[in-house]
Amino acid sequence: MSIKRALLLSCLSLLLMQCHAEVTDSAESEVDVAPAIAESTDPLAASFRVRNREIRDDIIAELGKRGIPHRLNDDGSIGYRLADGEIIDTVYYFAVGLYAARN
Question: Cys staple from 95: which of 16, 58, 79, 86, with CB 3.0 to 4.6 Å?
Answer without folding.
Answer: 58
